[in-house]
Design brief:
The protein is of the alpha+beta class. 23% of the residues lie in helices and 44% in strands. The protein has an 18-stranded mixed β-sheet that branches. Strands 22-21-20-19-23 form a five-stranded antiparallel β-sheet. α2 packs antiparallel against α3 and α3 runs antiparallel to α4.
Length: 343
């Protein structure tokens, strides 16, 4: 056989093998699609913790697993103390927190990526997008459009909160049209640019004696708590070709994320308690029950003059600060006969 014929023969074999491989890898009806079968652009679940389900249009929800594919039109639902992380291409990571519902509206490589958050909290980490590529999150009150950043979006009780850690996010209010048995959201022309360390709040406000509602957007500095929450997606690194990883490799990545998560969660608990204490101090508690709910204890302070003070010690030293019914009082250390904790 001549050299030219050899080349033709090898080429024919290559095409034939490729053809066979293509059809042997084709998704079989009723079976899960593995990451190795993932079309370019679709998402790969790299972490699924707790009660997480995905639902395809017209089908029943199924448990979400590592390596599963997230397709356009999929709906993801997370239960209590549950979360999911998915990566799309090499430049988009979304983390859906507990008790949330999110639907993937559009996946167009290099053009448009859009999700809709009906309830709960989603964290996003976006590498710089290419020209004309857009990433947006819709809620019932706002649409947030991004080019490259780390931010969180939540929706609860007619209020959307978009917190930006890095980068810029364009936030538009959405005017809601009344349609029977259907939700239709129309974008307005108003747009607010939310920069790093800022938060936009878009909420429905009643007008005309409560018969109509409009959406108002306000901007405020980001809180320490909001920054800590966004760290839950900041700690997740982009994976090169996640569809090539097996379950063992993804399990190792999940454990690393959980280890970092634990530190953030512990810091968040401290921050949340500090926040609750500050709110309680400002409002002045009316009962010891309110104090105990925040501090998980009541301090009983007995003075040498026989006076007994019940409350919670919030600072110690030569002069103690004690939160009591009605506000904070100061007590000198040398006036105190004894202290005991009432559970």
């Amino acid at each position: 056989m001549t050299t030219g014929n050899n080349h033709k023969f090898i080429t024919s074999i290559y095409i034939l093998l490729s053809f066979i491989l293509l059809f042997s890898c084709k998704e079989k009806s009723g079976k899960d699609v593995k990451t190795s079968d993932a079309p370019a652009g679709n998402g790969i679940i790299i972490m699924s913790i707790g009660d997480v389900k995905t639902r395809k249009p017209g089908k029943e929800p199924v448990p979400a697993k590592m390596q599963d594919i997230v397709n356009e039109g999929d709906i993801i639902e997370t239960g209590k103390n549950s979360n999911l992380v998915a990566q799309f291409n090499d430049n988009i990571i979304i983390r859906i927190e507990s008790e949330s519902t999110l639907s993937v509206q559009s996946i167009q490589i290099g053009k448009k990526f859009e999700v809709s958050l009906e309830q709960g909290l989603v964290l996003s980490k976006i590498k710089k997008l290419v020209k004309d590529e857009n990433y947006s999150i819709r809620t019932p009150t706002a649409v947030a459009a991004i080019r490259g950043t780390e931010f969180s979006t939540s929706y609860n009780l007619k209020e959307s909160v978009i917190a930006v850690h890095e980068g810029k996010v364009a936030v538009k209010p959405i005017k809601k049209d009344a349609v029977i048995d259907e939700k239709i959201y129309k974008e307005t022309k108003n747009e607010i640019i939310v920069e790093s360390n800022k938060v936009a709040v878009a909420k429905e406000v009643a007008v005309k004696d409560g018969k109509e509602e409009k959406i108002e957007i306000s901007v405020k500095p980001i809180s320490k708590k909001e920054s800590l929450v966004i760290e839950k997606v900041s700690i997740i690194s982009f994976i090169e070709k996640p569809e090539k990883l097996d379950e063992k490799e993804l399990t190792i990545i999940t454990k690393e994320i959980q280890k970092k998560d634990e530190k953030i969660t512990n810091t968040l608990k401290i921050e949340e308690k500090t926040e609750r204490i500050n709110i309680l101090i400002q409002k002045k508690p009316q009962t010891l029950v309110e104090i105990k709910e925040v501090f998980e204890r009541i301090d009983e302070i007995t003075l040498f003059n026989g006076r007994v003070i019940n409350g919670a010690i919030i600072s110690r030293g030569n002069v103690m600060s004690v939160l009591t019914i009605g506000g904070v009082i100061s007590v000198k250390q040398d006036e105190i006969k004894g202290i005991r904790v009432l559970k």
